[in-house]
Design a protein that fits this description.
Structural class: alpha+beta
Strand content: 25-35%
Largest sheet: 4 strands, antiparallel
Distance between the termini: 10 Å
Number of helices: 2
Shape: globular
Number of strands: 4
Radius of gyration: 14 Å
């Protein structure tokens, strides 16, 4: 068995799932629901990443993987205010359509750095 390390740099929102719901169980549901929202939320996808079997769920717009031993120069300053406003609108619509709007601990969108071990 091998281990794979990477890091993701993304714009999005962390979905704090209850302890009894594993993000892997949500992946199929989120994927299917996001396909129905493609017209309303064309830039929204999801990321399931984290510490080995303790993955976290994120809804994202821009998402870049940075593999171990490499680096990427990411410049969020090139994203316009209009683009951020549109991403925020899309993420909010997806959060509510997926039923996550009332989760305790749900914070607004922002730039995320997510280490992953799988």
């Amino acid at each position: 068995m091998g281990m794979y390390h990477s890091t993701y740099f993304a714009y999005g929102v962390h979905i704090p799932l209850p302890d009894d719901v594993h993000p892997w169980a949500e992946n199929d549901r989120v994927d299917a629901q996001l396909r129905t929202l493609k017209e309303q939320c064309p830039d929204v996808g999801y990321l399931s990443a984290g510490n080995y079997d303790a993955d976290e769920l994120f809804l994202t717009t821009q998402c870049d993987e940075v593999a171990l031993g490499t680096y990427k120069h990411v410049t969020p300053e090139t994203v316009t205010a209009e683009q951020l406003a549109d991403w925020n609108r899309q993420l909010a619509a997806a959060v509510h359509a997926l039923g996550y709007g009332d989760l305790p601990g749900l914070a607004g969108p922002g730039w995320l750095c997510v280490p992953d071990l799988s």
